[in-house]
Fold this protein.
Amino acid sequence: MKTSADLDGDTGEESETGNQARLVVAVDGPSGAGKSSASRGAAIALGMRYLDTGSMYRALTWWLLERGVEVSDAGLVGELAAEPVIEVGTDPRAPWTRVNGTDVSAAIRTREVTSTVSAVAAVPRVRAHLIAQQRDIIARTDGIVAEGRDIGTVVAPDAPVKVFLTADSAARADRRAGETTWSAASTQVEQDRRDRLDAAQSGKADDAVEIDSTQLDLDQVIDIIVRLAREHAGVPHPRQQIR
Ligand code: DC
């Protein structure tokens, strides 16, 4: 499988984080903590690219389901992991995901994919393959906010800015239910199941800053991530410039 990022059509914005070569901001945490919205918002504010690594696991899962592959067959899933061409767009204003040239940005968010993806993401050959592609995408950018479960621990352990975004289980389920037609109760049951399955690859890096978003709104979370990135790059936060 080839995985590539759309680096064309660069926004042309100069990174606000200074001349730091390849600043990587790693955002990890459980599902429903608000990683995607916060990471996209921070990337836009900082003039950086954005990588949603979960979309790559979802894309592979979508393709396996389309082919009628029994995803509990880890050996077969591992063998097939490199077959589809998975591409992701890294513009934080309009991220997209393609499989063999087909836009699957919406198709990878269905309940079927969501309830199946943990099993696919647990297969070691799948992880090795996608992690290599993710590192390649990150290496080709000047600055990127990458979100997932293992960015700060495995994909980019040298990232100078690491965030571990959490929220309590009920708050996460409420947010997810608001985005779907599922009830909050069934969302939480499904979320707890996925949390357990994803736990092996969802550790917090020792040097990550933990943000509990239970009581925070999206702008507050974005603000914290932007401040951490600017502090690292030596660019004062606008508020700090006010006398
Ligand atoms: O964040 P998400 O719900 O789109 O992630 C989809 C699945 O992929 C989820 O089961 C966790 C898994 N995942 C992973 O194992 N490693 C990552 N870096 C990102 C996602």
